[in-house]
Amino acid sequence: MTSAEHPPGPAAPMEPDAAESDVSQVVKRDHADAGHADAGPSVGDSPSAAEVSDQATDRHAPRLRTRAVSRPRRGEAHGHQHRDVSGGWLRPAVFGAMDGLVTNVSLIAGVSGGNASKSAIVLTGLAGLAAGAFSMATGEYVSVSSQNELVQAEVTKERYELEHNPDAEARELAAVFRHRGVDADLAERVARQVGRKPEEALRMHVREELGVDHHDLPSPYVAAGASLVTFAVGALIPLLPYLFGFDSLRTALAVAAVTAFLGGGMVARITNRPFLRGALRQLLLAGAAAALTYAIGKGVHAAIS
Q1: How many Å apart are CA 151 and CA 210, to the nearest integer?
Q2: How is the chain split into domains, by residue range?
Q3: I want to staple 141 with a disulfide (CB 3.0 to 4.6 A). Which of 63, 82, 148, 224 is the partner?
Q4: Contact residues for 92 (Cβ-Cβ < 8 A; gap 6+)
Q5: Average pLDDT, rounded, for the chain
Q6: In 10 A of CB 142, how many CB atoms?
Q7: Model's pTM, two decimal places?
């Protein structure tokens, strides 16, 4: 199963409110909380949201621009909305469904190639369905949990550095802003203002250094549940002809082929790829797997009979 790809579409039109980056939001909140009267920079010296927005959306800062546009905001002037890509369900769901389909159609083809009876094929298919579904769910749960635990360990390390070496961390964040095209003096002032709120500073450092938002990690339960259910559904499809009384490998292969074609096409449409391209890719991969296991079954049967 190949992973879904997101096409690099044209940049969305920038509106003033939608273009403000996380940096500008922090600066604006800090101005409101501080009342322009704390020991930090004066009103005249503090960077305005417009300044930060202009710097962050400069042509030398494509990553900040992309992040600002992709953050969902209510009431965007151009009215577009983005799908949830951080919930951790799409990848295991797609992988589970296609893996269940390909696994069981290949398993059925293999035992059919070995001249197994209908009852043996059904038993093998149901066993493969149950074993594969639980295996997929367990693997997804452990995988996502381990990844989240690794992120949390790095967040703890970053929090310690912010508490014990705030000046060094501020310089590090200012260097990131300068690398993105923000002027040096503005970058330093923004880094100092971000540091006034430890949680905001931590969140920004984690995003910049780890590339994740530790408040928006995928759920291992969602990933495990999506894998279990979709694998079971995918694995059940090539078994349906046998469960409904047909004793024909060709019927099972035909049902599986139609499902693989439609499933691959639907995944392609979700990721804005051509339907036919995704459909044919999935059909060819499933067909190749079934053909190989059928040949192996034939060969094993010939060797032991």
Answers
A1: 8
A2: 17-33+48-69, 90-146+218-304
A3: 224
A4: 136, 140, 223, 224, 226, 227, 230
A5: 76
A6: 13
A7: 0.65
